[in-house]
Amino acid sequence: MKLRDQMPELEGATEWLNGKTTKNDLVGNKPTLVHFWSISCHLCKEAMPQVNQFRDEYKDKLNVIAVHMPRSEDDLNLDEIKKVAEDHGIIQPIFVDSEHKLTEAFENQYVPAYYVFDKDGKLRHFQAGGSGMKMLEKRVNRVLDEMEKVQ
After folding, report:
1. Domain-located, residue 60
2. For a Cys-Cys bond, which of 38, 76, 130, 151 suits 111, CB 3.0-4.6 Å?
3. Overall number of domains in the chain
4. 12: left (phi over 0), alpha (psi -120 to 50) or beta
């Protein structure tokens, strides 16, 4: 995906955990953070407390969706995905992408990976890797500030 590209439809999940959501639920009301992770990804687990803190801190201003992107056959075990999600406090909707349908729509190759969309569903920031939560927070705040100026 390139900056300013429109958010793909959230289709092709093999399962939704913590409630299903659609692109229509997200676009138009507030910015959205789409966060790719995997149960076999050590960096993802390390970053999860920061992602959760971020989600909780911005809960009134930002939609947060997790996408579980399997990296191997071992990552396809739904019970294990549920257990790791519970162990790491992932309470936001989780798109289980066992067939890589959303991963392909995003052209994503990384976990963890973070996509920030503005309230109109346009991609405003992308980053991959475990560090950089400060940069992510800056980018989200920039999108939120722009939104407040418009209102």
Report:
1. yes
2. 38
3. 1
4. left
Range of the domain at 34: 15-150
pLDDT digits (tens, 9 = 90+) for 68-88: 999 999 999 999 999 999 999
Domain-embedded: residue 2: no
**CATH code of the domain covering residue 32:** 3.40.30.10
**70 located within any domain:** yes
Residue 129: pLDDT band by 50, 70, 90 thresholds? confident
In angstroms, the CA 3 to CA 80 distance is: 34
What Rg, from alpha-carbon coordinates, does the chain have? 14
DSSP character at residue 56: H
With beta carbons less than 8 A apart as the criterion, state whether 48 and 89 touch. Answer: yes
Q: Tokens at residue 21, please? A: 């959501």
